[in-house]
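=== How it folds ===
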Amino acid sequence: MCQEPPEQIFLRVYREIRPQAPVPEVRLDFRAFANANSTIRLADGGKLEVRVSDALQTAPGNVLEALAHILIAKLARRRPERAFELRYRRYLNRKDTRNRLELLRQARGRKIVSAPQGTCYDLEAMFEDLNFRYFHGLMARPGLGWSKRPSRTLLGHYDPSHNIIVLSKVLDRRQVPSIAVEYVLFHEMLHVKFPVEHRAMRRCVHTREFKEAEEGFDGLKAAKVALTRL
């Protein structure tokens, strides 16, 4: 049995969600994105332009159907049906899909960061101190760097695809106490030690073991108070 062409899937779903709207011409391109990104827009002339990561080019028709419902509902400013969200999330959470996306991120993704020696704080020296105090000096040092832009919403993150910890440049200032910077770096070091767990359709980022280890940080309350003031 032949699989329904992707363009036909999007056209069918568009008719289901927007039955009163004019029937558009659908142009779907699979693009070499670094992740499972997808975009949709209704261009001039009524053409429906869809761009989907080529990582999904071999996805089953029902997965593309779920993605079509999610994207077109977004276009119509509606909440997609939960069943389609779960179907799509379940596919992305499959081990083979996760492995394929991880390889794409490694091959195509770029990580642009500043050197670990900042204006006020040296992340490499701080890492070695934390490593000795909390991890018995046994953690292999990943890449370390400051973000190019000073974000207040994302103070730090660990990117396993590139094995690098990045802290927001907003922390590299004299008015930010060292305990706050140490805590953010320690938190990301815990992400190195306790990788994300995948349980059915859920990604468990902060496991019970992670949270217990985090409670062992000396000066946790003071660090959180300082970060709240940011």
Observations:
- The chain has a mean pLDDT of 90.
- The longest strand covers residues 25-31.
